[in-house]
Amino acid sequence: MKELFKTVISSTNERVKNPFIGSYLISFVLVNWRAFVFLLFSKASIEDRIIVINYEYSTFLGLIIPLIIAVFYVLALPYLNLGIEKATTKASNEREKNLNEKALAKLDHKVEEAKRERKIEIERAGTSEISSLNSRIESLESDKTNLTKSLEEERKRYRDIESSSQKMFNEHQKELSSKRMDNISLKTQYISEVNRKKELEKNIDSLIKLFLNDRDIKFLQFVFSIKDKEQNVRVINNAEKSVYTKLRDMGILTENSRNKIIFTDKGSELWDLINKDVENDNS
Question: Residue 36 sits in which domain range?
């Protein structure tokens, strides 16, 4: 029984799915809707409802009109739709074209706005970057000025040090040159003094041999021995006085303010030489 029921339902579904049958059934219900409403919702008895339906709604038109609608729906409606579609294609295309143009216009407007916004952003970024670069340039210029100033100060300090060093070097050179000249002068004086002394020794030797005798030398020894005493010319005898007079005239001896017999500078040098010769002879 169940299988029979399923078979009936399956067959009915297949028929209903048929375009013609489905359209006919829908058209039949729509055309005869009053009969169905009366059948379903009337309060009369079922027998009365059937009688009323047979008398009022069971007509030839109730069967033909749904059939015509079904045939029209299945056969003519596709061609009608095709004609309508062809008739409206141009309008649809124009409408779609207008819509596309509007969409493109909106897109172009958005693109232009995006370009303007991007340009503004670039200008803002550029202005900010330029401001940052200007600040950086000012900072670098300030650093450059400070470095230049420091470099000039270092150069000035170097020049001062170089000038001071050169001045000290020149002064040192002058001092060395002066000392060298002094040394040369002293050396020259020393050599001259040595030569003069040697010459004097020679002259004194000759002078001693020519002008001084043993009595004169003994008197000089006497004067040398009393140089720290209060001896004067009045205590010497006539012979010694003649020797003194001779040596005084030769510039070897003289008298001071207290009449004390003393050596002259020449006499002192002569006595040193005589004394050296005496010591050499004794040795």
Answer: 2-77
> Positive or negative CA dihedral for 270, 273, 276, 281?
negative
Q: Which of 266, 176, 259, 186 is closest to 220 using CA atoms?
A: 266
Distance CA 262, CA 124 (A): 115
Last residue of a domain, one of 210, 243, 272: 210
Same-domain check for residues 138 and 195: yes
Number of structural domains in the chain: 3
Strand stretches in the chain, DSSP E = 253-255, 261-263
Q: How many Å apart are CA 67 and CA 23, to the nearest integer?
A: 9
CB 260 within 8 A of CB 232: yes
Q: Tokens for 268, please give them.
A: 């002192």
Strand-pair partners of 261: 255
Each residue's pLDDT, cut to its tens digit, for the chain (283 residues) gives 557 556 656 655 555 567 778 888 888 888 888 788 887 888 888 888 888 878 777 777 777 888 888 888 888 777 777 777 777 777 777 778 888 888 888 888 888 888 888 888 777 766 777 777 788 888 888 888 888 888 888 888 878 888 887 888 888 778 777 777 777 777 777 777 777 766 766 665 666 656 677 787 788 777 777 766 655 544 567 767 788 888 888 888 888 777 778 888 888 887 787 777 655 555 5
Could you report how far apart the first and last alpha carbons of the chain are, in Å?
184
